Amino acid sequence: MSMSEGARGEPRERSSRREQNKAENRTALLKAARAVFAEMGSGAASVRDIVRRTDLASGTFYNYFKDKDEIFEAVVGELTGELLKRHNAGRAQADSVEEFFRRHYAVYFDFIAEDAELLALAQKNFTAIRTLLDKPDVRALALALNDDIRSAIARGVLPNVDVSYLAASMAGVAFEISVVMVARDPVDPAAATDFATRLMMGGFQHLPRRG
After folding, report:
1. pLDDT digits over 197-210, tens only?
2. Phi/psi at 53 (nearest 5 deg)?
3. Is residue 189 a contact partner of residue 113, using CB atoms and an 8 Å limit?
4. Which of 170, 175, 158, 165 is nearest to 199 (CA)?
């Protein structure tokens, strides 16, 4: 390798290391924030509490996030991304009305209940999460649900009903039942899924069909 080639390679390596360090720092902050929000709730937590859970200097936080609210939104956004992946392997594969509802609710309730930290995060932050429902990352869940309903109608799995109303009711039932579910001891996602599914099935047969 010539000296000029080596000189060109070194800046690229330094740039690559910087990008890797930035990604690792952001991941460390998000991991710490998730733990802090689960333990303290977003209202009581502070940026200092989050940074203390990392090996980073206090000022480093502001290289990645504007404030506590922004990192809370990022934490919820990451969870939303994982939920979207699970829904793609869930209700999108359903071949009956009941399976469509059951898969939708099972994914949502199981996701919350399967991880102790995530369960604690849900228990302490539902009010804060509710304020994020119109944010782009969280809104993606509603858009995906609308798309899955349209696809199910096109495949003949669901009859032709009002897509927006159905999506809104499914999402509302999921969120509000989850609030009650996580407050119970023991937390029972299977019972929550069954209740929500039966509720939807009982009302669904009475919905007006579109031509």
Report:
1. 999 999 988 888 88
2. -85, 0
3. yes
4. 170
What's the first-to-final CA gap in the chain, in angstroms?
71
Q: Is the dihedral of CA 73, 74, 77, 79 positive or negative?
A: negative
Assigned token pair, 150 = 């349209």
Which residue ranges form the domains of the chain, and what is each CATH number?
1-65 (1.10.10.60), 68-211 (1.10.357.10)
At 132, which amino acid appears? Answer: L
Q: What is the pTM of this model?
A: 0.83
Buried b (16+ CB within 10 A) or exposed e, 83-121: bbeebeebbeebeebebbbbbbbbbbbbbbbeeeebbbb
The contacts of residue 65 (CB under 8 Å, 6+ apart) are: 29, 71, 74
What residues of the chain score a pLDDT lower than 70? 1-10, 211
Q: Are 174 and 161 in contact (CB under 8 A)?
A: no
